[in-house]
Amino acid sequence: MPSPYVLVVDDDVAIRRLVCSTLTDAGYHVREAADGIEALALITQEPPELIFLDMRMPNMDGWTLAAELTRRRIDVPLIVMTADGRAHLAALKLGARDYLGKPFAEDDVLRVLMPPPSNSYAVGLTTAAQLVAGPVGRTISSGLATPEGGPKEVVMAVVGIEVSRREPYADGREFGEHGAYEHIEGLAHFAVDPGHEANRAIVDLDLAPRDAQGLVRFTADISLVLRQRDDGPRRLLVELPNRGRRRVYQLFNRASADAGLRAHPGDGFLFHHGFSVCSIGWQWDVYRSDTLMALEAPEVQVDGQPVRGQAVVELRPNERRSTFLLANRQHQPYPVADLDDPDARLVVRDWEDGPDTEISREQWQFAQETERGIEASREHVYLAGGFDPGRIYYVTYTAVGARLVGAGLLALRDIAAFLREPSEGNPSPAGFDRSYAFGVSQTGRMLRHFLHLGLNVAEDGRQVFDGILPHVAGGRRGEFNHRFAQPSAQSVPGFGHLAPFTDAPTPDPFTGKREGLLDRQRAAGGAPKVVYTNTSAEYWRGDGALGHLDAADMRDVAAPPDVRIYHFAGTQHGPGSLPQSRLAAAEGASGRFGFNVVDYAPLLRAALVNLDRWAGEGVEPPPSRHATLADGTAAPRERVLDAFDALPSVVTPDRDRLWVLREVDLGPDATKGIGRYPAVEGREYPCLVAAVDGDGNEIAGIPLPDIAVPVATHAGWNLRHPDTGAPEQQMAMQGFTRFFARTRADREATGDPRPSLEERYASRDAYLDRVREAAEHLVEEGYLLKEDIALVVANCAERYDAALRAVDGEFTEEVAAPATRV
Description:
Helix content: 10-25%
CATH superfamily of the domain at 5-113: Response regulator
Mean pLDDT: 91
Strand content: 15-25%
Low-confidence stretches: 115-137
Distance between the termini: 47 Å
Radius of gyration: 26 Å
Shape: globular
Number of helices: 20
C-alpha cells in the first residue's frame, strides 16, 4: 500500500525541513513548496491527501491558495501553520482541519496528524413519511391523540433525517439534573408545497423544480445535541449558523471559537439549563466542510432554462490585489452569463456613503490573474492596476443560475415544527414543549426577516417558535429572500436596508407609509415573544436606534408588550477578550486601536433564560433598556465623538464619512423580489447612539460592571488601521478599549483627563468589592443570572490586572507576551 502523500507549503526553510523530516520519519511521502504558486502547480499534477499550509507567504499566500482550491473544487484537508494568534481562527472557520501555532515541535506535528474521531455508528435514512404515508408522503402519526383517541396526523415538510453520526454527547457527560445528551449529525430532507399559503412569501418558490407529487425538495445539514430525559419542560433551541459556522456554543457555553464550530460543550450552560440544541444549515452558497453547515437549494428555472438577472457584488480590499471572487466572502458565486456583458458596471466609492465613480470597462474584465497570466473567468473580476485598499467597489452584471435562497427560511421553520411534534420518526420522540430560535449578526437579521414575512406558522397552522432571540442584528434585515441574493452581504444597499425597522407600526419619514416589522406575523397569528439584544457597534454603524425610533417625528417608539430591546452598554459586535487584538480575522482588516475587551456573554445568557421563563411560564422579563430621546441619553454620533477628542492617542473618525442608512429604490419589480442594481440611494435615515460620561463610557443600556465600575473607556466604534487604507473611517463591527493610567502622575504626563486607577480605587480588593455590588444589582434587576456573578467578577479582575500592565492604554498580545514566556 503506497504511503500517504502530504504537501508542506511554507516560505521558511527551517519550518519546511522540520515538518518534512517529521512526516518522512512517520512513513509519509512528502513534497514541499515555498509559496502558493509552486504548491498549486504540484497540487494540479497530483492532489495530496493532506496539506500543511503557511498562511503568510510571498507571491501567493495561504489564504489565496485555499480560496483557489475551493474555486477549483479541490477538496484536500488543510493543517494551517501560523504565528498569528488570531489568523488560525479564520482558517478554521474557512474549513481548515487543524492548525499549528508557530513555533512548534515534532510532537505537535504528530499530534495534528491524528484523524478526527470516526462515527460511533451510522444510521440510514430515518423517514417521517414511512410512519403514516399521506397523499403527498408528508403526513406523520404524531405521539398525540385525537379527541376520538386515534393517532393525530400532522402534515410535515421534513420527510426524513439522514443520520451520518450518532453518539453520546461529550463522552456521556452528565449536566446536573438534566443528565446526559446525545449528539447527532446528518442531513435533513424537506418537501414543501409551493402552492400553500404559508409558503407564498418565498420568492421564486413557484419556479423551483417539483417532484411527481408537486413538491419542492431540498436538503440541509443538521446537528443535534438532544437531552435524553423526558421529564420536566422539554426545551429546544434552534440555531441558524452564521455563514455556516455554529456560534451558539461559543456565545452561551463560552467554548472557544474553533471548538464551538464542532459543538463543544464549553462550560455546559445550555445543557445545565435543560436546552436541547439544533443547528440547521440554511445558506445555499456556503462550501460544506466538517465545520461549515449549508443547504442545497434548488436552482430556479423558467421554461426549463436557468434564470438570468442582475446581481451585485461588493468588494472591500484591505490590501492591493488584482482579482476578486464574484461573491461576498469566500462563498459560491453566481456565474456571469456573458463574459462581454455590455451592461456590466464597476463603480468605486471612497467611503461608505460616498459618491460612486464608474471605472472604464477597458480597465477591468471578468477574469482572474494566475501564474499563467490573465485568464477569462465567469466567477472572478479583474482590475488592471489592482483594487485599492480601503475603497469600496460594486460590480453589477447579468448572472445566471438563480437559487431558491428563501429555502433557508423554510428550513428554519420546518425543522423546528418537525422536532417539536412527538413522533416515532423524531430523533427526540417525545418532542418539545417549547422551542426558540437564535441567530447572531447575519442570522439575527435573518430572524427579523423571518418575522417580517410572517413565517412563524407552519403549513398545518401551528405556531413554530414560542420565542425568538435575534442577537446583534441592529435594525436591518438582509439578503435572504430575493432573486440572486447573497446571504452573507450586509452593507450592500439593497433589500436588507428597506423599512420597516420598528416592530410597532411607525410612519416612514420619506414615504409616509405606516408599517411595522411584525405586521404580517400578527395578521397570520403565531407571534412569538421576541428579545432583541444589541451592542454599541450596531448603533454606531447607523441602524441600531432605528429599531426603537420614529424617524419621521424623531420620537421614541416603545416596544410592544411581547417584545424587549436590550442594549449591552459599551460593547462591540462580538464578546471581548484579553489580550487585545487589532485583527478582525473574518474581515481581514486591522483596527487602529486594540479591540473592545468587554465580555457581554453573561448578559446574553440571562436574556435567553428570561425569554424561556417568559414564553414558558409567563414570568415577565425586565423592561427594555436602551438610549432614548425622552431621557436625553440618545444623541447624534457627531456630538458623542467630541467627548473622545480629549483622550490621549485617540483619533476619531471623519464626521462626514460615518456609516449611514438611506432609503433605497430597487426598481419596479422589487415587490416580486427582483432588484435593479446598483440600487438608487436617497435620503438619509437619522442615526443615534448612547451618550457618554466624562470617561467616554455610555450612560444608557445595560451596564456590566466593566462600565459601571470602569478601569477603561470601552467604545462601540474603531478606526481602520492605516496599513489597510481609509484610516479616517470606521471599522465594521469592532470597538476599542483604552485603559486608564495607573497613577495620577502617569495620566498628567499624557494629558489624560480621566482619573487614574489609584485615584478611583484604594486597592484591587476594594475595586472587586464594588464590582460584586454592581453585579448583584444587575441580578436584582433581572439582567444577570446569580450563577454568573463569579464569572463577571473574574472578568473584571482580569481587566484590572491588564490595566496595571497596559502600555499607552492598551494590553495587546505584544504587551502580554513577556508574561506568557515566563
